[in-house]
Design brief:
This protein is of the alpha+beta class. It has 4 helices and 3 strands, in the order αααβββα. It has helices at 3-17, 21-26, 30-45, 83-97, and strands at 51-56, 59-64, 68-73. The longest helix is centred in the middle third of the chain and has 16 residues, at 30-45.
């Protein structure tokens, strides 16, 4: 999957996510929103069995059986409300660590 396909998918997921009850419940918790969206994006892309494990300090571990084991520091991410910057950052992370093969 190339980065433009990842961005298109994330854009669609972002638009659905901001209408969801999860977003409405946690919209004042920036790090939690980033983590929730990251987990949902992985599930929607190709990895429905992904698990999100908060490690503390804004660091999350995303696991998907034998496919990958990824630690992400969500403090490094742009603000979630800045849709374009956040999607670009997330696309780059996914391209580099998940779709590198």
């Amino acid at each position: 999957m190339d980065i433009s396909q990842i961005k298109q998918h994330l854009d669609r997921e972002y638009n659905k996510f901001i209408q969801s009850q999860s977003y409405q419940s946690y919209k004042n918790s920036e790090i939690h929103i980033r983590g929730l969206f990251f987990g949902l994006a992985l599930k929607g892309l190709k990895y429905p069995n992904s698990q999100m494990i908060p490690l503390g300090g804004g660091i999350y571990k995303f696991k998907n059986f034998n496919h990958f084991d990824l630690n992400v520091n969500l403090f490094d991410a742009p603000q979630f409300k800045n849709k374009a910057a956040f999607i670009n950052w997330l696309s780059t992370v996914l391209q580099k660590h998940v779709y590198q093969y």
